Amino acid sequence: MNIVVQKYGGTSVGSVERIQNVAKRIIEKKKNNHQIVVVVSAMGKTTDDLVKLAYAINPSPSKREMDRLLSTGEQISISLLSMALQSMGHDAISFTGPQIGIRTSGLHTKSRIEGIDTTKILDSLNEDKIVIIAGFQGVNDNDDVTTLGRGGSDTSAVALACVLDAPCEIYTDVEGIYGVDPRLYPAAKKLDSVSYEEMLEMASLGAGVMHPRAIELGSKYDTNIWVASSEFDVPGTIIKKGEKGMEGQSITGVAIDNDQIMITIRDIPFDMNITSHFFYQFANKSINIDMISQSAPIDGLINISFTAPSSDLNDANKILSAFQEKHPSIGVLINESISKLSVVGIGMRSQSGVAAKFFQLLADNDIQMLMITTSEIRISCIIKSKDKDIAVSATAEAFEL
Ligand code: ADP
Ligand code: ASP
Ligand code: MG
Q1: Considering the domain boundaries, does residue 44 fall inside one?
Q2: How confident is the model at residue 297, as a pLDDT?
Q3: Rounded distance, CA 342 to CA 378, Å?
């Protein structure tokens, strides 16, 4: 079978005309002898609007109910796309995540895909139908609908491609993956290809063009992922296994994440049991902590700073209050006006001087770094949010992205 999985994002299915345009593209592909599985996101800003609605009703909505609500966005777009295809004379059938057996584990609003039953998909393809599947959602062991985290339709699509042993085409509102978000730096250059490793770092560090879990899955199953425009027929970017040559650019991309908070705790007793217990509370809530720095102990006390996603602020506040109740002498400071700026590239493995160049350009632009962390292929630093625009442009320019 010549199966291909295509995914269309929110903007790409944001209006009747756009849905019709997507339907035409799917039909073209089918005419080229493909069996097509399509994953779609909710139309336009539907998910954002549903989130606002939830918070207008309840400032602390239950995560189970949140999943129930947010999963409805994709249900609208799958049925409309299916109707569009049918009106153009093609047989199509839509399914929700639970209906198609996308089984998930983990907490509500940030579940992970455990497995997919392909029976219904293959049966429908064999009946010559175009199969349309709601992205972003699945079902857990309690038979509750779950969601995969914002932007999670990419992960639904790649997971389906993995189990169907098919290539995955992600169609979106830009023409591919760029060295930096082209909306922030219009001179950004499009990449022909990017390695899973680099894309995973970029996606995890704020390049919202792809959901990080999608890249993790693609890499695990060695599934090629194409990212291209849903509107224009121009070559996009392929995400695949790969190393760059020794003489390649040191930096492949810059990412900026404006949805992070920085938490600093002062005067914690210097005891590893206390520190590990504290971070366990965050792990239990599946809060992804990225940067951690700890001061040297003075008089048996340490300070710890770390970053967490802003969307976890409510849970973080509860954990911090409980910690403060147990250790009344500690001080807690939450800084919400920060951004995490990162440079990523496997070229860093073989080229020195990247950190020096990066820090110098920040210094030249009077940008302070509040925290730094590095891995073999990335350098991230926390800066004040007010500096983010100039920091992105200066970095992109300096590294010719
Ligand atoms: P979709 O609704 O199709 O999933 P998203 O909004 O999730 O689309 O992702 C596409 C957006 O990602 C683009 O509009 C762009 O602003 C942003 N983006 C961030 N970083 C990059 C990058 N490095 N290359 C391309 N686009 C990026
Ligand atoms: N509709 C969901 C969101 O806006 C999932 C997605 O678009 O990938 O986050
Ligand atoms: Mg997206």
Answers
A1: yes
A2: 95
A3: 7
Could you tell me how far CA 393 lies from the centroid of its own chain?
22
What CATH number did the domain enclosing 88 receive? Answer: 3.40.1160.10
Residue 172 assigned as binding residue: yes
**CA of 182 relative to ligand 1 center, distance in Å:** 9
Judge whether 334 lies within some domain. no
Ligand 1 contacts CB of residue 252 (under 6 A): no
d(Cα 397, Cα 320) in Å, to the nearest integer? 40
Measured in whole angstroms, how far is the alpha carbon of residue 161 from the centre of its chain? 18
Is 183 annotated as a binding-site member? yes
Examine residue 93 and state whether it is found in any structural domain, yes or no: yes
What letter would DSSP give residue 377? T
- Counting the structural domains of the chain, the total is 1
Q: What is the pTM of this model?
A: 0.94
Range of the domain at 64: 2-173
In sequence order, what E strands does 210-337 have? 225-229, 237-240, 253-257, 260-269, 292-294, 301-309, 331-335
Nearest atom (ligand 1) to Cα of 254: 23
Q: How far is the CA of 206 from the centre of ligand 3 (A)?
A: 12
What is the predicted pLDDT for the residue at 246? 47
Nearest-atom number in ligand 1 for the CA of 211 is: 7
Residue bearing tokens 């600093």: 264
Which amino acid, 205?
L
Ligand nearest to the CA of 150: 2
Token pair recorded at residue 173: 């509102």
Identify residues whose C-beta is under 5 A from ligand 3, the ion: 9, 151
pLDDT at site 311: 92
**Cα separation of 54 and 65, whole Å?**
9
Atom number of ligand 1 nearest to Cα 230: 3
CA 204 to centroid of ligand 1, rounded, Å: 13
Residue-by-residue DSSP string for 67-94? HHHHHHHHHHHHHHHHHHHHHTT--EEE
Check residue 273 and give its pLDDT: 96
Instruction: Give the chain's residues under pLDDT 70.
Output: 1, 243-248
State yes or no: 171 annotated in a binding site: no
Q: Is residue 167 part of a domain?
A: yes
Beta strand 331-335 pairing with 301-309: unpaired
